[in-house]
Write a structure and sequence with these properties.
alpha+beta; six-stranded antiparallel sheet; 32% helix
Length: 307
């Protein structure tokens, strides 16, 4: 059995497994570990846990030590030098007239390398930039291009909800988000309303999707014909959070010579007060079918734009 911990190297960053190597560690402890990028300074997230002996457990790298006051001071110095590194890099980027936006800079714990993060809409030839930066800082330089979601995570900000971005506040990794999640939640498919500051679909659509899918079970859709305590009616609106539907009763059903006639008043019913029909599609008018076709075409166009 291997005793392991999760270690994160950034706020709301990904978690990595490390062997405790017999050290007594607690949630929030700062540690020094060896990674593929060299010696790194991280923070323990969560309690120590057991991993069964196996190829994965045996391949885990070990925690070198708990961070000492000297380690914490060194890490603080590296963080303090970030702004100066960013300013210098921006000046050199402007000098070489490169089409790139600098996002962040990071010193490795031992100070042997500086990693610069940037975004760009196209590939950037930064070989001359790296040479000049290496000459200025006398360290190894790494340029890493990131996407718009990673940019939002690094820069942070305030979302539509008035709170800090989820990605920079607590979300450790991005999960796939689709336009279908917005449709399940009856949200407007206006890209401006369902997209975050990064320009991509909001991450919170994923958080609430499972709940909405569960609530939608057994709920009729808009335009569906159902049986109510007052008779047969057509659904005008469904509220899956309240488990209610608004219905206009069918006063005269559609015939070969006349259109369907609905009541002018709208009635609200709870989900358990109605009964869905096995084949409500046969009650849809030609106008309803045409409107659904138009709506589907518009939705498909929006999906294409968002993707």
């Amino acid at each position: 059995m291997v005793r392991a911990v999760n270690v994160s190297f950034k706020k709301a960053g990904k978690l990595f497994y490390f062997d405790t190597d017999g050290l007594e560690l607690n949630n929030g402890d700062n540690v020094v570990v060896e990674t593929g990028r060299g010696i790194s300074f991280g923070t323990v997230k969560g309690p120590v846990f057991d991993l069964s002996d196996g190829s994965f457990a045996k391949s885990l790298k070990k925690v070198m030590r708990k961070a000492t006051p000297e380690d914490e001071e060194k890490n603080a110095q590296n963080l303090a030098k970030r702004d100066d590194a960013m300013d210098t890099c921006r000046e050199i980027v402007q000098k070489h007239d490169l089409d790139m936006k600098l996002i962040d800079a990071e010193y490795t714990f031992d100070g042997s390398k500086i990693v610069f993060y940037f975004t760009s809409e196209k590939r950037v030839d930064f070989r001359e930039l790296v040479k000049e930066l290496a000459g200025v800082f006398r360290r190894r330089i790494e340029m890493r291009q990131v996407g718009v979601r990673d940019e939002a995570k690094m820069l942070s900000g305030i979302g539509n909800c008035g709170r800090c971005f989820c990605c920079s506040g607590w979300l450790q990794d991005f999960e796939p988000v689709s336009i279908k999640m917005a449709k399940v939640q009856n949200l407007s498919l206006n890209p401006a309303k369902i997209s975050g500051s990064c320009g991509r679909l909001m991450c919170c659509l994923k958080f609430e999707n499972d709940v909405y899918q569960e609530l939608r079970k057994g709920m009729p859709g808009q335009g569906e014909v159902i049986d109510t305590p007052a008779g047969r009616g057509r659904v005008m609106e469904s509220n899956i959070l309240m488990n209610t539907v608004k219905v206009r009763l069918i006063e005269e059903e559609r015939t070969k010579d006349s259109f369907e006639k609905l009541s002018s008043d709208t009635y609200a019913y709870a989900k358990d007060e109605i009964r869905r029909l096995k084949n409500s599609g046969k009650y849809k008018t030609k106008r309803d079918s045409f409107q659904e076709e138009i709506k589907e075409a518009i939705d498909d166009e929006i999906i294409t734009v968002l993707d």
